[in-house]
Amino acid sequence: MTANPNLTAQDLWPLVQKLSHDEQLILARLALCAAHDSTADGAAYGAHPPAAEEFGGSSDAGAWEAEGWAEFYAKG
Known about the structure:
Blueprint: H1 9-18, H2 21-35, H3 38-47, H4 63-66, H5 70-73
């Protein structure tokens, strides 16, 4: 299958509108996957690998998530 270099998203829009909502979501996911260049991710991580301290921290990794919720549970 060869792509038509003159075809635009506007050309496809009438067909997309005919799809069910679920099919439109599937098409959107497929379009995002096609637009995402996974080779660029590998190159970016290779050029700037994560630093050791990036994943370091408290031994209780979930502790920070509990902070600030007391106000929502306070009896009023």
